[in-house]
Amino acid sequence: MMEMYNPYSLAGKTVLVTGASSGIGRATAIECSRLGATVVATGRNEARLRETMAALTGEGHVSILADLTKAEEVARLVSELPQIDGFVCNAGIIKRRPVSYVKEEELHEVFETNTFAAFMLTKALMKARKMNRGGSMVFMSSMAARQVTPGNAMYAASKAAVESFARSCALEYAPMQVRANAILAGMVETPLTVKGLLSAEDLERDKQHYLLKRHGKPEEIAWAVIYLLSDASAWTSGTSLMVSC
Ligand SMILES: NC(=O)c1ccc[n+]([C@@H]2O[C@H](COP(=O)([O-])OP(=O)(O)OC[C@H]3O[C@@H](n4cnc5c(N)ncnc54)[C@H](OP(=O)(O)O)[C@@H]3O)[C@@H](O)[C@H]2O)c1
After folding, report:
1. Which parts of 62-196 fold into alpha helices (H)?
2. How far apart are CA 39 and CA 53, in angstroms?
3. CA-to-CA distance for 92 and 18, rounded, in angstroms?
């Protein structure tokens, strides 16, 4: 049978997805596997990471537990990694507090997870030469990096840094034919947004700000990630893709 033409296919590619135990990362791992990728899924919660693994299509996927804020766990993750063609840097947390009430420990926690972990994991896997030539990095930033709302300064600043970091990676790793892009995701209902962050009424009100009068689904972010991982985006690097309407 003739193979179907599909430049968006991930067949033959191995993709590392962080934050694969929940929400957008889980949907990304699942959708990548459906498009033919071999997935390396990482997260902290063993039971939820196992649920993700059970939902993957195809064979040969790997899961590695790691807290990305801990240097020794990042080092172990990288040492256990196979060679990869894609890196989805997605793990993240949110804390909301007006600037005048920001606690230093919380600011550290947000930046250590969202920003420092992205830097240090990227550094570690590139130094260990785990990314193949022609590979692609996708950094999960947020519309919050561009559109600020009250009480969201810690998260917004951490995600603006991630968006900028993606551009630095695009520049510095271009000689290795490695691309790097950011995704600016709008509101997607996941444990991050639904659990305790906004009330049901706030969520309903928020939807009215969107053109389609609804929030995104995790898969709708995953499909944008897949575009950026696939050969369909072979000439796209250093950009930010807004996935929000
Ligand atoms: N949901 C939205 O509306 C939205 C919008 C824009 C951008 N984003 C971004 O999209 C990404 C995913 O968000 P989500 O909504 O899918 O959130 P989520 O459901 O809460 O999932 C967050 C993931 O990050 C992982 N994680 C958090 N801290 C970690 C750490 N220290 N080490 C390793 N893994 C860690 C979690 O792992 P465990 O659960 O295993 O600990 C989990 O898998 C985040 O970067 C978020 O900022 C989300």
Report:
1. 71-80, 104-111, 117-127, 153-173, 191-194
2. 9
3. 9
Reported confidence tier of residue 1, pLDDT bands at 50, 70, 90: low
The pLDDT value recorded for residue 227 is: 98
- CB count within 10 Å of CB 178 equals 21
Torsion of CA 176, 239, 79, 119, to 10 degrees: 110
CA 233, CA 220: separation in Å to the nearest integer?
17
Per-residue pLDDT tens digits for 63-97: 999 999 999 999 999 999 999 999 999 999 999 99
Measured by CA distance, the residue closest to atom 44 of ligand 1 is 92
Neighbours of 75 (CB within 10 A): 15
Cα dist from 139 to 122, 136, 164, whole Å: 10, 10, 10
Ligand 1 lining (C-beta closer than 6 Å): 19, 21-25, 43-45, 48, 67-69, 90-93, 113, 140, 142, 185, 187-188, 190-193
> Do residues 203 and 176 touch, judged by C-beta distance below 8 A?
no
Q: Taking the CA of residue 78 as centre, how many other CA atoms within 13 Å lie in the half-sphere pointing to its CB? A: 20
Percentages helix, strand, coil for the chain (3-state, rounded to 5) are 45, 20, 35
Q: Is 159 a catalytic residue?
A: yes
State the distance between the two ends of the chain, measured CA to CA, in whole angstroms. 39
- 110 to each of 98, 118, 154, 197, 211, how far by Cα in Å? 14, 12, 7, 15, 30
